[in-house]
Amino acid sequence: MSSEWQTTTFAEAPFTVIDGDRGANYPKQHEFTSAGHCLFLNAGNVTLGGFVFSDCAFITEEKDSLLRKGKLVRHDLVLTTRGTVGNVAYFSDEVPFSHIRINSGMVIFRPDQARIDPYYLYLFLRSKNFNDQVAFLTSGSAQPQLPIRDMNRVEMPLPPLEDQRKICSILRALDDRITLLRETNATLEAIAQALFKSWFVDFDPVRAKAEGLEPQAMDATTAALFPDSFEESELGLVPRGWAAVTMADVSTVGIGKTPPRKESQWFSEDLRDVRWVSIRDMGASGVYARQTSEYLTPEAVEKFNVRRIPDNTVLMSFKMTIGRVAITDGEMTTNEAIAHFRLDADSPLSAEYIYLHLSQFDFSRLSSTSSIADAVNSKTVREIPILVPGKQVAAAFQDQISTVFAILKKNEQQAQTLTQLRDTLLPRLISGQLRLPEAEQAVEEALA
To answer: Of 41, 61, 130, 332, which sits most exposed with the smallest number of CB within 10 A?
Structure first.
């Protein structure tokens, strides 16, 4: 099969690479709005996992009309080419915006759909083959960037269109299931976050009882566990009898460690070694930290006294990128930019409670004069305030959310398994090393 497949360079491939408009009409900061006619992509909108629309900037229809280049049409692809190079997103029919433009650190791929399937191109741009070539082309740059003239040297296999579509069908089935699992988890986490906010941030049940009302959507037995008044604390007014303390009061706070980078023998990519979590790994994880890009040898962990963090322990980044939170799925270690919070065995709180608290915590509260990045250190991490409810309320909350988090964990594990299968099949399919019927069977078994 692969003998029929030609190899082409990007310069000769059946797609057009389009730069953004960098002229005098390029939008200035004050011209962006939080809603509007045309979405103007920023670096955070194009990730390893595709488009993310949590932090969006827009320009007016008038401004959009003044720009000459850089506007997407359906089935275009976007690639980041400066700073973080190689993130890619696909402008499919499911993307909820009709008008989208790229910024100056991106390019558009516009495929000739008579010769190349857009989703096949998307798969290639996500492949190790492509990423390895990008790494070679950008090595040695202080500021990583991939100009179009360099990108044109990238080589890619180009099967017949029918084979491209078969490859896409096989791998899209995996992508669709992975997407469904992640969307389900986003909904489940939102439910848990909303319940936590209602009980422990807004104090809805206590406020209702203080006004002589029955708490909404709550049975009488659970409602009876909540106080009906407030008292002053270091956190302001809190439900009577609940304790305002610090993270150091409710957990053993530890910080990770990095062995000397120049001594490469301490680092590994062997799955049998000890997982070592970085901030980048936390950014790629869901609720649970599971996969890591690097490992430490057992000898490194012992020699440099790197703390082994138990299963079901909350992690939080506090340097550079502040406030990423995850729960460990199995024993692991972290670098020094990540703190962890080990609860005592008799603690009324759970890892899920700590996770939800830190996920919603406003870290700007830790800084009064300097930037948050300067203000947050291991001392301030230990002093992060937390509210401890009565034991019965904490237990009732855990009863409500334990099933939610169990499903979250199971879904994340399944998504990881499917992702690993996809990433294994992708290079073998694109190179022609794996027969299509064999790949179809592997996917059918995984999705059964």
So the answer is: 61
Amino acid of residue 277: V
pLDDT at res. 107: 97
Could you check whether 2-158 and 191-405 share the same CATH topology?
yes
Q: Closest Cα partner for 221 from 47, 56, 357, 399?
A: 399
Dihedral (CA of 113, 119, 122, 124) sign: negative
With CA atoms as reference, report the closest residue to 428 among 412, 440, 414, 439. 439
Cβ contact 156:8 at 8 Å: yes
Question: What are the residue boundaries of the structural domains of the chain, listed by start?
Answer: 2-158, 191-405
Contact 270, 287 (CB under 8 A): no
pLDDT tens readout for residues 72-121? 999 999 999 998 899 999 999 999 999 999 999 999 999 999 999 999 99
- At 193, list the tokens: 């976050």
CA atoms of 209 and 244, how far apart (whole Å): 21
Q: 160: Cβ–Cβ under 8 A, 6 or more apart, which residues? A: 4, 5
Asked if residues 341 and 378 have their Cβ atoms less than 8 Å apart, the reply is no
- Does residue 370 carry a pLDDT above 70? no
Nearest 5°: CA angle at 318, between 380 and 395?
75
436-447 helix and 161-200 helix, angle to the nearest 10 degrees? 20
Q: How confident is the model at residue 366 (pLDDT cuts 50, 70, 90)?
A: confident
Paired with 295 in beta bridges are 268, 275
Please state, for a pLDDT cut of 70, what percent of the chain lies above it: 96
How many CA atoms lie within 13 Å of 379's alpha carbon, on the beta-carbon side?
Answer: 3
Q: Where does 2-158 sit in CATH, by number? A: 3.90.220.20
CATH of domain 191-405: 3.90.220.20
